[in-house]
Write a structure and sequence with these properties.
Helix 7 packs antiparallel against helix 8 and helix 7 runs antiparallel to helix 13. It is built from 18 helices and no strands. The chain is mainly α and 440 residues long. It has a single domain, classed as MFS general substrate transporter like domains (Growth Hormone, Chain: A, Up-down Bundle). It is globular, with a radius of gyration of 21 Å. It is a multi-pass membrane protein. InterPro entries: MFS, MFS_dom, MFS_trans_sf, NO3_transporter, NO3_transporter_NarK/NarU-like. This is Nitrate/nitrite transporter. It is found in: Cell membrane; Membrane.
Length: 440
């Protein structure tokens, strides 16, 4: 294998001459655009609520729908990455999911809007492909950082969406369209972006540094066949899934409810509420990357157990920040506490996927899919809290904060470097060697 066909050991941010770095940039950009399709509706919900006459319970159901479809999709997408390849998988996902994004504007009843939100939710599976593809393209010493940057810059789309979609809406209204027409027309923009990304992904990326699955010798996959039981009986996989439920699950939930929370509790108008909610997502420009960088550094000295402890700390502090946010009585304190818990939440996301690729080198896609699905299960469960007529948004945030602290303690006592029944690696170096030798 020539050097160009090996995973990169260094991120060369401005070098597009290698397929690894082209894939790096196209992957995070595509994931970024997926958030426009996935959550483009969220900052427009004050208008949509009025237009469709939605109750709090119905809005909660749409939030649940937006994240629940992703659960099964992420599990299936993880296996497709292992067998069909990330390039074809991502391209197909983008083409299919652009359809409900374009057509959601046809909704005129709660029921049809709910179904479109459910269909659009499948686009959330894009995260698994993003992390899988980055894991393939970069060597173990930098894998956590690469995963965190692509995931973080992609998640940044959730924040930018909250800022940009109200502006697009306002521009359309400025051309003389009614509010009811404007939110529908606004969704054409993210649908178009998904089609553009589908072209870029298919044209300029490959499945591995050595080429596409159909073009290379896949001896490794023949020698080491995927073992579903091995993954499902590994406690570490489920521990990381729980952790992701409280970090990424909270992130996508906040993307869905933040604008409404600021409008209803602090009297902010829709445009400014979208901007404030966007600040939360904007933290991804550096915060998730920090989590991956810190995890890679501590991993060199303390192995997987060190990464586990780091993740536990991030979750506990995230939980404390959420409790602070839930009890904020003024807009200033709400913004300050939001930025505080957002920092540790997003670093937890990065630290999690600095661990995930090392759990099972033969089933990277499947493990990434299960952990990623955990994030959406968390988001779905949180949706029920925000749906309840008996629980305020503030109380819901506080309960989630307590859960985050509890899961952080679970992660702290989980042994990530184990061997035996749970099929773990005794030494982190063994895992790294296996991954470095493998093309996929």
């Amino acid at each position: 294998m020539n050097n160009n066909a090996k995973p990169l050991e260094k991120i060369k941010m401005f070098d597009l001459s290698t397929v690894q770095m082209r894939t790096f940039h196209i992957t995070w950009l595509t994931f970024f655009m997926c958030f426009f399709g996935w959550f483009g509706i969220a900052p427009l919900m004050p208008t949509i609520r009025e237009d469709l006459g939605l109750t709090k319970g119905q809005i909660g159901n749409t939030i649940i729908a937006a994240v629940s479809a992703t659960i099964i999709a992420r599990l299936l997408i993880g296996r497709l990455c292992d067998t069909w390849g990330p390039r074809k998988t991502y391209t197909t996902l983008l083409l299919v999911c652009s359809i409900p994004v374009f057509l959601v504007g046809l909704s005129h009843t709660y029921e049809t809007f709910l179904l479109f939100r459910l269909a659009i939710g499948v686009i959330g599976a894009s995260f698994v492909i993003t992390q899988y593809h980055t894991s393939v393209m970069f060597a173990p010493n930098i894998k956590g950082t690469a995963n965190a940057i692509t995931g973080g810059w992609g998640n940044l789309g959730g924040g930018i969406t909250n800022m940009v979609m109200p502006v697009i809406f306002a521009v359309i209204v400025g051309f003389g369209y009614t509010n009811s027409e404007a939110w529908r027309l606004a969704m054409i923009v993210p649908g178009t972006l998904l089609l553009l990304c589908a072209f870029l992904y298919y044209k300029f990326t490959t499945d591995t540094p050595a080429g596409n699955f159909e073009d290379i010798n896949r001896e490794i996959k023949i020698k080491e066949k995927p073992n579903l039981k091995e993954v499902l009986t590994d406690w570490r996989v489920w521990a990381l899934a729980m952790a992701y439920a409280l970090s990424f699950g909270m992130e996508i939930t906040f993307d869905n409810v933040a604008a409404l929370h600021f409008v209803d509790n602090f009297g902010v108008d829709q445009k400014n509420a979208g901007f404030l909610a966007g600040l939360f997502g904007f933290m991804n420009i550096f915060a998730r990357a920090l989590g991956g960088i810190f995890a890679d550094k501590i991993g060199k000295k303390k192995g997987l157990s060190g990464k586990g402890w780091l993740l536990a700390i991030f979750l506990v502090v995230e939980g404390l920040g959420l409790v602070w946010f839930a009890n904020s009585s003024s807009l200033v304190f709400a913004i300050s506490s939001m930025l505080f818990f957002a920092l540790f939440l997003k670093m937890a996301n990065g630290a999690n996927y600095a661990l995930t690729p090392f759990i099972n080198s033969k089933n990277v896609g499947l493990v990434a899919g299960i952990v990623g699905a955990g994030g959406n299960i968390g988001g779905m469960a949180m949706g029920f809290l925000f749906k309840s007529e008996n629980i305020s948004y503030g109380e819901a945030f506080q309960y989630i904060g307590f859960f985050a602290i509890g899961v952080g303690l679970v992660i702290a006592i989980t042994k990530f470097e184990v061997k035996g029944f749970f099929n773990g690696f005794l030494k982190n170096e063994i895992a790294e060697t296996k991954l470095k030798e493998a093309v996929i």
